[in-house]
Design a protein that fits this description.
It comes from Solirubrum puertoriconensis. Pfam families: YjdM. InterPro entries: YjdM_C. This is PhnA protein. This protein has 69 residues and is mostly beta strands. The protein has no helices and eight strands. The protein has a three-stranded antiparallel β-sheet with strand order 4-1-8, with no helix packed on it. Strands 5-6-7 form a three-stranded antiparallel β-sheet, with no helix packed on it. Strands 2-3 form a two-stranded antiparallel ribbon. The radius of gyration is 11 Å and the shape is globular.
């Protein structure tokens, strides 16, 4: 099954994505701001999630809050 962003564009390993919404980071007081660019994403086993380095650490991001850059 293809991994797609919020607009339906297919994502692949190494793509860059942009956040479309401010996201609170669990177990942290950090908030990722809308428009933050996440480069070089990695796909996970779940088509609804990708891994990427945002805010200085690796985290899993839901594709419903991302758009392809």
């Amino acid at each position: 099954m293809d991994t797609k962003d919020s607009n339906g564009n297919v994502l692949i390993d190494g793509d860059s994505v942009t956040l479309i919404k401010d996201l609170k980071v669990k177990s942290s007081s950090q908030t990722l701001k809308r428009g933050t660019l996440v480069k070089n994403i990695r796909l996970t086993n779940s088509p609804a999630e990708v891994e990427g380095r945002a805010g200085g650490s690796m985290m899993v991001l839901r594709t419903e809050f991302l758009k392809k850059a």
